[in-house]
Design goal:
By secondary structure, the protein is α+β, with helices and mostly antiparallel strands. The protein has five helices and eight strands.
């Protein structure tokens, strides 16, 4: 599946929540997610800009692989996902048998809703609040951007790992 996404940094979700209400769309429940990025020693997946992630969100363990594709103003990745029939410790243990280890971990709280063809996520991390818009087409993302009154030129294509690293660099190296 093709995934196209764009993130927007916001001070709070007041305006986007107001716009969603005007469109008769209510964000879902707040869900705490734990994300684990895995790689082999030496970081070959990172070097190829390939993501191997395990995510817990209260519904099980979601395994995701993302590979980059040529992009426009959006972050575009080829994405495959599946739910694993085990807990996170067992999943990490299983992949460690193949040499993979956790190289990065982050938590976020997410609320999701569907807007046209796009999934709109309101994400809170220790270093900021973000609106993430995902769809399988550029048009789906852009329609949601327009409907929410966002400025596409303010869109962010970086991963949360890169954004967290930037936040740590700006704050002197540590989490708040």
């Amino acid at each position: 599946m093709l995934e196209m996404e764009l993130k927007f940094s916001v001070d709070d979700f007041t305006e986007v929540e107001r716009r969603l209400r005007e469109l008769s769309i209510a964000p879902g429940e707040r869900v705490k997610e734990n994300n684990y990025i895995l790689d082999l020693p030496g970081g070959p997946l990172r070097q190829m800009d390939t993501l191997f992630r395990l995510r817990t969100n209260g519904e099980g363990v979601l395994l995701t692989i993302k590979k980059p594709l040529p992009a426009t103003c959006l972050k575009v990745r080829h994405e495959k996902e599946t739910i694993l029939a085990c807990d996170i410790e067992e999943a990490i243990s299983l992949f460690s048998l193949l040499g993979y280890g956790v190289v990065y971990r982050y938590e976020k709280t997410r609320m999701e809703c569907i807007l046209g063809e796009a999934t709109v996520c309101l994400d809170e991390l220790w270093f900021g609040k973000f609106i993430e818009i995902e769809a399988t087409s550029e048009e789906g993302v852009m329609e949601a951007v327009d409907a929410l009154g966002l400025d596409v030129d303010m869109g962010i294509r970086f991963s949360y790992a890169a954004l967290e690293q930037d936040a740590m660099d700006r704050s002197g190296g540590g989490k708040k």
